[in-house]
Amino acid sequence: MIVAFSVSPLGVGEDVGEYVADAVRVVRESGLPNRTDAMFTSIEGEWDEVMDVVKRAVAAVEARAGRVSLVLKADIRPGVTNGLTSKVETVERYLSEG
Length: 98
Known about the structure:
Residues 3-92 form the Thiamine-binding protein domain. InterPro entries: MTH1187/YkoF-like, Thiamine_BP, UPF0045_domain. The protein has helices at 17-29, 47-62, 83-97, and strands at 2-10, 34-36, 41-44, 67-75. By secondary structure, the chain is α+β, with helices and mostly antiparallel strands. A hairpin with a 4-residue loop joins strand 2 and strand 3.
């Protein structure tokens, strides 16, 4: 499965990069395939391991901010691996053909 999520502290002002970095650090240290862009961090793995990482990433932000917002989108597709890369490669292939 692939989960794209965004975790943000609330009530700490506009500069939230330091808080978000705490969450991304948890994801990167998990060892699971992941990507971070300007809006979301995506992580790939089995349900329990991915959701555990999301929970720990939220907890990392919550430890410094009393209120946290979480947005999560999941692609649950058993048996598929390397989706983070293969989905993008498919789109790029179609773009190069056009």
